Amino acid sequence: MTLGQHGALTVRWSATLLAAGLLAGCGTGETGLQRDAARQLQARVLEVTQATSQNNPATALRALEGLEAELEDAQSRGGISDERRRSITTIAAAVRADLTDAMAKTEQAKARAEEEARQAAEQAAAQTPPAQEAPAPSTVQPSGEDKGKKDNQGKGKDSG
After folding, report:
1. The domain spanning residue 83 has which CATH number?
2. pLDDT per position as a tens digit, 27-42
3. pTM over 0.85
């Protein structure tokens, strides 16, 4: 499934915001994100952005789920502050909404195209004259030569 040009642009922009939100000032204690947690989260964000750049929203959504799991894990280990996690989660939610919207639009366009193709096929079938049946096979009359052979055979049996 591919995204339309506008949908792909929107999703890429959202993924870029996600990356920017994560990377802004990462690696220092003041940002609420420890260096190890930042590296792990950056890898997940990279998966999301790569999938969106390849117009693959299903893969991007799976990568986004991985990012969200990493966020929870990082917070439970103290690698990210609650404020920073909320900020990234908010951006991730926007990316998810864009991906979901883009997928829905793609599915709607696919359904419309399939319906139009079905209608066109029905219309073409209605305009095509029905096929005529082949004429029934006629009974072949034996030629005079064949008839004579049958007569001779019949005579031979009678004279017997």
Report:
1. 1.20.1440
2. 444 567 788 888 888 8
3. no
